[in-house]
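Researcher: Checking consistency across runs. Here is Phospholipase again:
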Amino acid sequence: MAWNRPVNNSVHAPVRALVLAGGGARGSYQVGVWRALTELGWRPGIITGTSVGSLNGAMFALDLYETARDMWLTIRSQDVMELPEQNADLSELHAFLRDVVRQGGMDVSPLEEIVERVLDEDALRASPIRLGLVTVEQRGLKARELALDDIPHGKVKDYLLASAACFPALRAHIIDGVSYLDGGYRDNMPTALAQKMGADELVCVDLEGVGITRPNRTGLPTTLIRSYWELGDILHFDPDTARRNMELGYYDTRRAMGCLRGCAYAVSCDARSCQDAAAFAWQFGQQQKSVREKYPVTLTADLALRLANLKDAELAPLEAAAEDVGVDPTQFYTTETLGKAFLEKCEKDRIESFAPLFEGSGRAADAARAALLPNTFLQALVYRVLTGPVLPEVIEK
């Protein structure tokens, strides 16, 4: 096996590994991750991947960012697999699906043509970034963890396709008479392989795809990058979705590396924005206390925030409200501009119907409606903080 690096008794820099999970069409997210890592000067010595993660990893190892980006921004489902005509009627679709099951999965000849066109095996073997992948033998579901040097010459593209053979949706890939399936059947996030190949620290990119994601038991320092937002169906390849996912991956990576704050949104962590976030959080707390003094039953903002499960406590109410009204998560914000984006999207008439609760003229029915509409009431609290008077400190009884 070609896993272990040569013995070197001198002090060496930590070997970084990028671990790319499988997830089909969600793989566009990893292209945004790579862009951010490159901008930040973070370069791995090792990349391990499963399924689409191995295909992306091969392009990253070849420094083909622009090729990967352009491919994901143009590729559609019919470019990856043989599909029925878009205007096929229901009987034709049923016949197609019966044929898929009978033939053992959809034909992925289009994907094979893409891999053949963009991946140069000799250049991949010469890359300073070492590549590893996971696939599974169909018979017995035996996992195969392979560093590039373990793969016979002329077979790298085959094993990359084998790693991405998402059976039964896609056909098993046959190499030298052996049928192979998607590596996600055994290890969708190959952290152990990265450690075996000599990694000292990991950056793992999770697409929350189907398959088995094993616990990371390496004990190595690990940064996990995962989207707060849904990334789309794993078999639906669409340029607009890909563009969105790339931006999410880019900002999530910068956040994971300490360059941004927030959870659902990419928010600046410069001094001014952080001061604004702290001021917003304090005023939000004062608004809640003021309402609770008058209407103790109105505790619903806390419930809405618990359900949103946002980790940045100061920004959580603003992020939750922004999400509810559909603020675009693929943009960069400051605390101030995120607040303005919320104000532009929210339904002001609906929110202002809660004004009596803040002004002390509300009735029991208003408080009951707030209790029934926790997310809308949270929006009303945020709106009040952003547009209303600054409250003095309120001591909650």
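Researcher: Does this match what you'd expect to see?
Model: One thing to look at in this run: The radius of gyration is 25 Å.
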